[in-house]
Amino acid sequence: MRGCEFSREDSESCHGFDPRAPHRNGPLRIYGYMNQSSTGQMPEMEEVDTNESNGLAKRVALISFLSLVMLMSVLGNLLVMVAVCKDRQLRKIKTNYFIVSLAFADLLVSVLVMPFGAIELIHQNWIYGETFCLVRTSLDVLLTTASILHLCCISLDRYYAICCQPLVYRNKMTPLRVALMIGGCWIIPTVISFLPIMQGWNSIGINDLIEKRKFSGNSTVCVFMVNKPYALTCSVVAFYLPLILMVLAYQRIYITARAHARQISMLQRAGGAGNADSADHQRNHRMRTETKAAKTLCIIMGCFCLCWAPFFITNVVDPFIDYSVPEQLWAACLWLGYINSMLNPILYAFLNKSFRRAFLIILCCGHKRYRRPSILGPGVTCTATQINGSTHVLNGCSSASKLLLWFCNTRPVPV
């Protein structure tokens, strides 16, 4: 009996495999010894080979997908930050400061949070210790919450810029207020992440359950579980309140955009014979403008909700159903939220013509064909008309120029 307990070599000589280290022996050796029939055939070997190949294929697919998400997130957010640093015109727009800070938060998510989550997800084991588990979890909550709050600030900035008069916007969005808003996007997440997590406030009342889940078989897991008060407070601050503000802001922006489109149509009709567009063409153009605005807002809100709503719904529901949400569902919801950090540069920068031009200049080494043209274009002649005592541009200008000059309430000087 003891001859099978001395060492690994003795154990192998007695049983043909080491039960304490099955991964070293491999399933073929185990099944080959245990399940070989009297005829010398091993029927389970083909099934084991199939399971091994399927598992390897899934592992490769998972590694490829996670690597692609991290790589695209790093490159996209870096490109946004470099574009604003190099382009003087982009630095003049206040909204872009929020976009740069957002890109910095998303870049940190892809560098400091995603890699460790990917390693744990692939190996099903946490090897960096309990203290770093708390630090990594705190960074996760801080950076993802900061990203969401930046999206909320961008929506509020656009609301003031489009739905309020220019003077109101200049008074509201002073450099000091922009700095305070960006500072709040970083301070608030710090308060709800590092402070409660490092102090253990999120685990009050569920410490025993957390200890049980830390050790799964022979592996250790970085477990982050929250009690009911922390789940509700964190979710409201990090997601539900910003979501409500974003919905209200973008709804008002869309309504205002429709009103602007109607106003431009009225101004064009008031231009009389100088306006070459027919009434049908004007209506079609207005409908296309409204449809494009609606699609843009739907894409922004749709991606935000699609990426983060599953996680925060699960985060609130899980404590009230005795933490019975499967680990696979948790991982899927969490990485769906991480994907939002990859999409933000596309939604808030790549869809913007000024950013696209700056990207092309960077990627094409400053080729002159991508240099910024004049806002009204070369040799453009604008005429004006009086409506209700104010001067409006009508002929010889693009619709974007008309809307810009109308919105800024400037009196154009005839060329």
UniProtKB/TrEMBL annotation:
<keyword id="KW-0675">Receptor</keyword>
<feature type="transmembrane region" description="Helical">
    <location>
        <begin position="139"/>
        <end position="157"/>
    </location>
</feature>
<dbReference type="GO" id="GO:0004938">
    <property type="term" value="F:alpha2-adrenergic receptor activity"/>
</dbReference>
<dbReference type="GO" id="GO:0005886">
    <property type="term" value="C:plasma membrane"/>
</dbReference>
<dbReference type="InterPro" id="IPR017452">
    <property type="entry name" value="GPCR_Rhodpsn_7TM"/>
</dbReference>
<comment type="similarity">
    <text>Belongs to the G-protein coupled receptor 1 family.</text>
</comment>
<dbReference type="GO" id="GO:0032098">
    <property type="term" value="P:regulation of appetite"/>
</dbReference>
<feature type="transmembrane region" description="Helical">
    <location>
        <begin position="329"/>
        <end position="351"/>
    </location>
</feature>
<feature type="transmembrane region" description="Helical">
    <location>
        <begin position="230"/>
        <end position="250"/>
    </location>
</feature>
<dbReference type="InterPro" id="IPR001520">
    <property type="entry name" value="5HT4_rcpt"/>
</dbReference>
<dbReference type="GO" id="GO:0003008">
    <property type="term" value="P:system process"/>
</dbReference>
<feature type="transmembrane region" description="Helical">
    <location>
        <begin position="60"/>
        <end position="85"/>
    </location>
</feature>
<keyword id="KW-0812">Transmembrane</keyword>
<feature type="region of interest" description="Disordered">
    <location>
        <begin position="1"/>
        <end position="21"/>
    </location>
</feature>
<dbReference type="GO" id="GO:0071880">
    <property type="term" value="P:adenylate cyclase-activating adrenergic receptor signaling pathway"/>
</dbReference>
<keyword id="KW-0807">Transducer</keyword>
<comment type="function">
    <text>G-protein coupled receptor for 5-hydroxytryptamine (serotonin), a biogenic hormone that functions as a neurotransmitter, a hormone and a mitogen. Ligand binding causes a conformation change that triggers signaling via guanine nucleotide-binding proteins (G proteins) and modulates the activity of downstream effectors. HTR4 is coupled to G(s) G alpha proteins and mediates activation of adenylate cyclase activity.</text>
</comment>
<dbReference type="GO" id="GO:0010008">
    <property type="term" value="C:endosome membrane"/>
</dbReference>
<protein>
    <recommendedName>
        <fullName>5-hydroxytryptamine receptor 4</fullName>
    </recommendedName>
</protein>
<dbReference type="GO" id="GO:0045202">
    <property type="term" value="C:synapse"/>
</dbReference>
<keyword id="KW-1133">Transmembrane helix</keyword>
<keyword id="KW-0325">Glycoprotein</keyword>
<keyword id="KW-1003">Cell membrane</keyword>
<feature type="transmembrane region" description="Helical">
    <location>
        <begin position="178"/>
        <end position="198"/>
    </location>
</feature>
<dbReference type="InterPro" id="IPR000276">
    <property type="entry name" value="GPCR_Rhodpsn"/>
</dbReference>
<dbReference type="GO" id="GO:0007268">
    <property type="term" value="P:chemical synaptic transmission"/>
</dbReference>
<feature type="transmembrane region" description="Helical">
    <location>
        <begin position="97"/>
        <end position="119"/>
    </location>
</feature>
<keyword id="KW-0297">G-protein coupled receptor</keyword>
<dbReference type="GO" id="GO:0043410">
    <property type="term" value="P:positive regulation of MAPK cascade"/>
</dbReference>
<keyword id="KW-0967">Endosome</keyword>
<comment type="subunit">
    <text>Interacts (via C-terminus 330-346 AA) with GRK5; this interaction is promoted by 5-HT (serotonin).</text>
</comment>
<keyword id="KW-0472">Membrane</keyword>
<dbReference type="GO" id="GO:0071881">
    <property type="term" value="P:adenylate cyclase-inhibiting adrenergic receptor signaling pathway"/>
</dbReference>
<dbReference type="GO" id="GO:0004993">
    <property type="term" value="F:G protein-coupled serotonin receptor activity"/>
</dbReference>
<keyword id="KW-1015">Disulfide bond</keyword>
<feature type="domain" description="G-protein coupled receptors family 1 profile">
    <location>
        <begin position="76"/>
        <end position="348"/>
    </location>
</feature>
<dbReference type="Pfam" id="PF00001">
    <property type="entry name" value="7tm_1"/>
</dbReference>
<feature type="transmembrane region" description="Helical">
    <location>
        <begin position="296"/>
        <end position="317"/>
    </location>
</feature>
